[in-house]
Amino acid sequence: MSAALNWFAEQAEALDRDDSHAEALVPELASRGLFRIGVPQALGGSGGDTYDAVEAIAAVAGQSLTAAFVFWGQRTFIEFLLQTPNEALRERLPPLLAGEHAGATGLSNAMKFLSGIESLQIAATPDGEGWRLNGRLPWVTNLRRAGFTVAAAVQTPDGGAAVVALDHDQPGLARSADLDLIALRGSNTAAISVADVAIDSSRLLHADARSFCPGVRPAFLGLQLGMSLGVARRALAQARQEGQGAHAVLLPQIEQTSAELEGIATSLREGLAAKRFQAEPAALFRLRIRLAELAQAAVGLELSASGGRAYLADQDKGFPRRWREAAFIPVVTPSLSQLQGELAKHANR
Ligand SMILES: Cc1cc2nc3c(=O)[nH]c(=O)nc-3n(C[C@H](O)[C@H](O)[C@H](O)COP(=O)(O)OP(=O)(O)OC[C@H]3O[C@@H](n4cnc5c(N)ncnc54)[C@H](O)[C@@H]3O)c2cc1C
After folding, report:
1. What is the pTM of this model?
2. Between these two residues, 68 and 317, which has the higher pLDDT value?
3. CB–CB of 11/68 below 8 Å?
């Protein structure tokens, strides 16, 4: 592990169990330059490509999935600003890159809407030159109490879907208390209610969610895969360590899982570099599904290699936390069942 990530390793249990480090997380990630990775230097980043950011998220996920998920939320919001045609919104990049302000991604609803699973949960009605918004986002991570901007999809008065950026201090916008989660409790995850919030076109990330979401999806999903990669690599490393003795019978399986995992990482890197996933989303969906399965398999191998010791509290090496972390991976949007549904539709076409 890089020493730069020690803090995340040391706080991993607390980040999972309570909110004592919730406010520190974004500044800690930023102070290591992590949000700048894969962002063009001309825009304040450190250059590189999206896959470099995937690997950075994976490295953090190997220590703490809570930290990696917050990293994902912030970095994905930054990606929205990189890809929006709204130049004025791009000027908001500096405090996000510096971790002085939090960016949250409330686009599960939009992704499910585009898959035909859910209707849009925020509605816009005309209000002079702009709109009034009403609705609710039941799940959003990285709603830092010190201040946040959240990306949300709204149903427009003409029945279309737009993507907007809303600020924590806009009249009518309210953050709930943190949701009472079984894990990831330091992630600033809460609901947002939107009551008569007035906006104008300066807050439009894109006027058409049907064009914006598929465009940002390779980065949205690719960055998410960093979480699966990191959790799986870490569990396999633990399994290797634990499996040296009586459980050596597991070593071939551990190596096979590891080789498949790294093969998928290579496919992800190549697909992102070639910009293949815009035209072939199904290929990315398949990587997401297989990686989630491998993350589950990896924690299973860690459990098998540890045996009964995995159940001894005084020998806790993070296994129970990784077990919960791996359980989260199939649930986060787009969920595995959602993607399997998409692939079935794709096959029928
Ligand atoms: C800790 C945590 C943090 C989160 N943070 C965020 C965040 O920052 N931003 C955000 O936008 N969301 C966030 N979410 C929301 C999350 O990603 C999912 O949108 C949400 O959990 C799925 O909604 P649900 O469980 O109510 O699924 P439901 O809609 O109740 O569906 C249940 C399951 O079935 C699947 N499903 C439903 N209908 C279909 C169908 N027709 N075909 C195939 N599958 C289907 C769903 O995908 C889901 O897996 C977070 C969730 C958690 C647990």
Report:
1. 0.96
2. 68
3. no
Q: From its phi and psi, is residue 113 left (phi > 0), alpha (psi between -120 and 50) or beta?
A: alpha
Per-residue pLDDT of 158-211, as tens digits, reads 999 999 999 999 999 999 999 999 999 999 999 999 999 999 999 999 999 999
Task: Identify whether residues 217 and 323 lie together within a single domain.
Answer: yes
Q: 10 with 27, same domain?
A: yes
Residue 169's contacts (CB-CB under 8 Å, 6 or more residues apart) are 147
CATH for 177:
2.40.110.10
**Cis link prior to 334 (omega < 30° from 0)?**
yes
Cβ contacts of 49-54, under 8 Å, gap ≥ 24:
49/272, 49/273, 50/79, 50/218, 50/219, 50/222, 50/223, 50/272, 51/222, 51/268, 51/269, 51/272, 51/273, 53/223, 53/226, 54/222, 54/223, 54/225, 54/226, 54/229, 54/268, 54/269, 54/272
Which one, of 171, 168, 216, 220, lies nearest residue 195 by Cα?
171
How far are the Cα atoms of 115, 117, 202, 299, 342 from residue 112, in angstroms, in the given order? 5, 5, 25, 28, 10
- Closest-lying ligand 1 atom to the alpha carbon of residue 141: 8
Token digits of residue 277: 């996933």
The mean of the pLDDT values for the chain is 95
Position in ligand 1 atom list of the atom nearest CA 330: 49
CA of 331 to the centre of ligand 1 (A): 6
Ligand 1 environment, Cβ below 6 A: 73, 104-108, 117, 139-141, 181, 184, 189, 331-333, 335, 337-338, 341
Write down which residue in 74, 101, 128 finishes a domain.
101
Tens-digit pLDDT profile for residues 201-222: 999 999 999 999 999 999 999 9
Q: How confident is the model at residue 52 (pLDDT cuts 50, 70, 90)?
A: very high
What mean pLDDT do residues 307-323 have? 87
* Mean local confidence (pLDDT), 215-234: 96
